[in-house]
Amino acid sequence: MLTLVLLTGLALVSVNMFIPSLAHMAADFEVDYSLMSLSVAGYLAMTGVLQIILGPLSDRFGRRPVLLVGLVVFVLASVGCWLAQDFWLFLVFRLLQGAIIAGSALSRAVVRDMLEPRAAASMMGYISSAMAIAPMLGPMLGGVLDEWFGWRANFAAFTLFGVGLLLVCWADLGETNQNKSETFGKQFRSYPELVGSRRFWGYSACSAFSVGSFYAFLAGVPMVAMSVLDLSPATLGLCVGLITSGFFIGTFISGRIAALFELTTMMLAGRVVACAGPMIGLGLFALGYLNVVTLFGSVIFVGLGNGLTLPSAGVGALSVRPHLAGSASGLSGALTVGGGAVVTSVSGAVVAGAWAAHILLGLMLASAFMGLVAALAVYLLDRVEGPLSA
Q1: What angle do CA 35, 36, 41 make, to 5 degrees?
Q2: 71 Cβ neighbours under 8 A, 6+ residues apart
Q3: Same domain, 337 and 258
Q4: pLDDT at 352 exceeding the cut of 70
Q5: CA 192, CA 211: separation in Å to the nearest integer?
Q6: Same domain for 245 and 107?
Q7: What's the domain range around 295?
């Protein structure tokens, strides 16, 4: 489990650890900041595409070789970023770093290979805790490295992390896919079983809309902080961590109790909690209580609800067709990234003005509610067709 936690953590840290250095990097490469930001947006787009490819590859050749190759590519790409003197060359290597998404996408498949759905959801609760801790610690570490050694130290650190994790996986991570596809032709002939499953789309939609509320928050809260609450960047950073702390608590609870309940029970409980937060917040806003406590206090419930929902929803998507768990993990992950990109764009465009806080919570509530609808759809399917079997 520790190996899977580290794989998930490195995949997430690689997204944002160097963000505090973006301005320095733009100056060093002599490009506009907007162009430099492609190293984040382009990376996310690449990971979305790679998840669709890496999942089927792991169903055909196994989880272990795909993970090891992904780590090797990540290490080489990190060295390229570290040493690059030209922006476009740096960007190419930065996109290649996206191969580390294999660590996050295939960790879910590894867990599902080993355990029946409820036990898998419990383990995913613990592993998902890395999704809360890594985004908080990554930028802090990156900022310190930049201040002490310059921005290239971030990519030197990525290189060392990648080499260390490659050695750990080589020694610890055995092959868990015992039902590899015989050929790609046979695999893709069975692929319609997955994409034609209403349950798969229900679980995936629940995950995507759950994460969407978090993306809406990240995109919109800076405008609220500036135009409504007049918060300093440091205070905003501290408050943003609150939704992550709620998520951490939720994933820990999932790890403790998910094995005792059906997947849909955990999903519905999480969605109800996630919807309750913005509803309470909007009610308090209507009564004239719009402040830091009411805004970020309501947001904690969204993080808590996501922590309860996502481990079970993720495992459910992989359990619909266990022999296509890798493909399901990749496709579900790509849908989440794509949905997050859409929600981020919408939130960035509409959250503005005196009503910015109301609009933000409204968007978060809408996304959380759509996740609840998806969870209810899966619940009804379970009542008709019976719950997922091991």
Answers
A1: 85
A2: 99, 100, 102, 103, 162, 165, 166, 169
A3: yes
A4: yes
A5: 26
A6: no
A7: 190-385
Mean pLDDT is lowest, of 58-67, 278-287, 335-344, 354-363, for: 335-344
Structure tokens at 371: 């996740």
Nearest to 348 by CA among 261, 262, 235, 222: 222
Please give the mean pLDDT across all residues of the chain: 83
d(C-alpha 71, C-alpha 85), whole Å: 23
DSSP letter (8 states) at residue 389:
P
3-state secondary structure of 163: helix
Q: How many separate helices (H) and strands (E) can be counted in the chain?
A: 17, 0
Neighbours of 41 (CB within 10 A): 12
In the block, tokens 């060295």 appear at: 79
The whole-number pLDDT of residue 202 equals 93
Contact of 112 with 322, CB cutoff 8 Å = yes
d(CA 189, CA 182): 12
Report how far residue 244's alpha carbon sits from residue 306's, in angstroms, rounded to the nearest whole number: 10
Residues 258, 122 contacting (CB under 8 angstroms): yes
Say whether both 50 and 151 belong to one domain.
Answer: yes
Residues 6+ apart with CB under 8 A from 233: none
- Answer yes or no: is 390 within a domain: no
Residue 198, token pair as written in the block: 């209403």
Residues 358-377, mean pLDDT to the nearest whole number: 94
Residues in CB range of 140: below 8 A, 6 or more apart: none
pLDDT of 218 reads 72
Residue 286 burial class via C-beta count within 10 angstroms: exposed 0-12, middle 13-18, buried 19 and up: exposed
Residue 308 and residue 268: Cα distance in Å, rounded?
Answer: 9
Taking the C-alpha atoms of residue 212 and residue 364, their distance in angstroms, rounded to an integer, is 8
